[in-house]
Amino acid sequence: MKSTFTVPPARPANRHGLLFSLIAIVTRLQLSSLIKSSSNPQLLVSLFAVVSGAVALGTITAVAMVTHLPLLFPPLAPSAIILFYTPMSKLATPRNVFLSHFLAVLTGSLVMIILGLIFPADSLKDSAAMNWPHVIAIALSIAGTMGLMIRFDCVHPPAGASALLVTMGFISEPGQILSLLSSVMLLILEAILFNRLIGGLPYPLWRFSPEKAREFSSLAGQTGATNDWQKLAFRILRKH
Length: 240
Prior knowledge:
By secondary structure, the chain is mainly alpha-helical. Helix content is 66%, strand content 0%.
């Protein structure tokens, strides 16, 4: 006699288990959930940006202290503000952040190499001196950085400070440039962790997503006119 076997029906997910309850609690406490039910979502966004930015830069500082590596650079501070205050904006995407800083230090380094062939080397290496070679280097590096960011569609304004660090002589060795780019990568990884886990946001892993930015317009810097001058400007532009 041939026996038959029946597959038992799949058990429904236990919606009252401890793991499910913890996930539900964490989800409700994420920024993306809180701002939908809050009467003052901008306050929550500000608190998230302040806490996340402080923790992110504090972590990088702690790593630099423990490892004795030069990982703390001034451009990280404005980058952190953009990454955590407007995380869904195009300026805050990992692609824009990394490529802009990379192009900035590359442009600054090339400018210093070329001008080093024209002017005495000592006049460019002295970070405390401000002379015509430095003026020319700063102008060329900023112009080149802006042009490359626009050309490759990776605009991230704080990267201009990275170009300045190179052309002002504060960063000149390959190891220092590698440290700067490493700290930028660490900041990006923290942004992915905080914005996705704590914020509950669809923060991109690389490229900008217009659809997701429209869904969280307040976190993408798309708040519209906020004062009378901006409203007047919008009315004038609509007429033309």
